[in-house]
Design goal:
Blueprint (H helix, E strand, L loop, with lengths): L1 H13 L7 H28 L4 H27 L3
């Protein structure tokens, strides 16, 4: 449900795209899954490099979120909804 909402909002409002079809949806899913993997792997890497204090847990969370959000935006703008 969340991915459907994200697709609809990004397509219609964020990027105002007219692109349609199964290939666009497939690219969207691939970008989202890749973004999820980037988030998990970067979070895990940072937590493995440093101690697991509250501070480093927060830092790992923030860095992983920023990296995955950046990748997600670039992927959606230049791959999925490119006009």
């Amino acid at each position: 449900m969340g991915a459907f909402f994200a697709y609809t909002v990004n397509k219609n409002f964020t990027f105002e795209s007219n692109r349609k079809g199964a290939f666009v949806v497939t690219k969207f899913v691939v970008i989202y899954l890749t973004s999820l993997i980037i988030n998990i792997k970067s979070n895990s890497l940072i937590l493995n490099l440093f101690d697991k204090s509250e501070l480093f847990i927060l830092i790992a969370f923030l860095i992983a979120t920023i990296l995955s959000a950046f990748f997600n935006f670039i992927g959606l703008k230049f791959v999925v909804f490119k006009e």
